[in-house]
Specification:
Layout lengths: L1 H12 L18 E2 L11 H11 L4 H9 L9 H8 L5 H13 L18 H21 L3 E16 L6 E21 L2 E4 L16 E3 L6 H12 L1 E10 L2 E10 L8 E7 L5 E6 L2 E8 L6 E9 L6 E15 L2 E22 L8 E22 L17
Parallel strand pairs: 1-3
Antiparallel strand pairs: 2-3, 2-14, 3-4, 5-8, 6-7, 7-10, 8-9, 10-11, 11-12, 12-13, 13-14
Helix pairs in contact: 1-6, 3-5, 6-7
Length: 397
């Protein structure tokens, strides 16, 4: 009876919501070199497929240059991205395509990937959301201890180069590859911990990657967001295809006073031109894609509603979930995450004598920074202990 009441309450709480678009602030800064403008005309995923087919036979560098100037009007799904990346000639073109896909991560899928299924009535909508809440509760409490490889690739719309005096800032056509890092993520007793980067995979030897940081993607994040969503506003959006068939997509909005979603970004300009980490628990909105039968979360989109007047104007996260085998059992786990931030670029300059120190950090132009994160190589985490028989006749050491 209590479960039926919960479903009815959820159904009553559901209400149609308009599309929730995240604003992306822009600003000007000094030292900007004139370059070719980013293309005004975006293309569809089908047009992208045709363009890539027409480019076959070109070198890796040539294809990377052509791909970098593409802007999509639709979301390039993870599955379609992997399919299109297979015939590419090399690393440069593959990285360029990833950046194009990441920039589209918060758009709608093409109509061909949106099943033509009738909208469920409000009671069924409530049941689907209730199943999702049950799924999250089960996932967080029953996930086994495991390890996974987390690979992060960073892109930016701007690169700067240190010069003898003022640095040179160059805005490129499309997004430029910055670096790539690989760490081992350990999920143990419901907590997520990142181990030391693997040898030879760290980005320039740094452990702290600049960009949006989210912890608990394997479970705690879902639990926190689901609690917030049920306290905020949630409404039906549409159907879309997932690896498990049609997924029911709901849009939601969480006010700041009900938010438990904490974000952090490294780094912004702090006092005395030093580096400072930005942390906040803002209002946010987004989408959640749910398997209507099992309640499994297949995709989640979080768009923060940051206050005006700070050095960050956008901090958005999208996570795709898929199946992973851990300890002989199948679990729904994150496979790809995309975070996008609009932030003021930090420029390293020689510090005046009065400031002290060799260098200082000043604000340059507003840039768009992308972190593409992949999760794979899931394995159950076990501690193996070898027990040897005790020999009472052996001499003590």
């Amino acid at each position: 009876m209590a479960r039926v009441l919960d479903v009815l309450l959820l159904a009553l709480a559901l209400s149609p919501m308009p599309a929730l678009a995240g604003g992306a602030g822009q600003g000007d800064g000094p030292w900007i070199a004139p370059v070719t403008a980013y293309p005004d005309d975006s293309i569809t995923v089908r047009q992208l497929e045709n363009k890539l087919a027409a480019l076959r036979g070109k070198s890796d560098r040539e294809m990377a240059h052509e791909i970098a100037g593409i802007e999509l009007s639709e979301r390039l799904s993870t599955g379609k991205l992997e399919k299109l990346a297979q015939p590419l000639p090399g690393k440069r073109s593959a990285q360029a395509l990833i950046a194009v896909a990441d920039a589209s991560a918060f758009l709608d899928l093409p109509e061909s990937e949106q099943p033509r299924i009738s909208m469920p009535d409000r009671l069924l909508q409530g049941e689907i959301v209730s199943r999702a809440a049950d799924f999250v509760a089960r996932t967080v409490s029953k996930m086994p201890d495991f390890i996974a490889t987390k690979t992060t690739t960073r892109f930016q719309s701007v690169k700067h180069f240190n010069a003898s005096e003022d640095p040179v800032i160059v805005i490129h056509r499309g997004f430029q590859f910055i670096d790539r890092s690989e760490v081992i993520t350990v999920y143990r007793d419901g907590n997520e911990v990142e181990e030391t980067p693997q040898k030879g995979k760290a980005a320039n030897g740094r452990n702290n990657i600049r960009g949006l940081h989210n912890t608990g993607i394997f479970g705690p994040l879902l639990a926190s967001v689901m609690m917030d969503v049920l306290k905020g506003r949630i409404g039906w959006s549409h159907w879309e295809e997932s690896i498990d068939g049609p997924a029911a997509v709901f849009r939601f909005a969480v006010p700041e006073d009900k938010s438990t979603y904490t974000v952090s970004f490294c780094c912004v300009s702090g006092r005395n031109a030093s580096l400072s980490e930005f942390k906040a628990t803002p209002a946010y909105h987004g989408e959640i894609a749910i398997n209507p039968n099992s309640g499994a979360i297949m995709r989640i989109v979080l768009k923060t509603d940051l206050k005006v007047g700070i050095e960050l104007t956008r901090m958005d996260l999208a996570v795709d979930y898929g199946r992973a085998t851990i300890g002989g059992r199948s679990f729904i786990c994150p496979v790809r995450g995309v975070s996008i931030a609009n932030v003021r670029e930090l420029v390293k300059k020689p510090a005046p004598t009065a400031v002290g120190g060799s260098y200082m950090f000043t604000g340059g132009p507003m840039i768009t920074a992308i972190n593409d994160t992949r999760f794979d190589n899931y394995h159950q985490f076990r501690s193996d202990i070898k027990i040897l028989p005790f020999d009472a006749t052996a001499p003590s050491q």
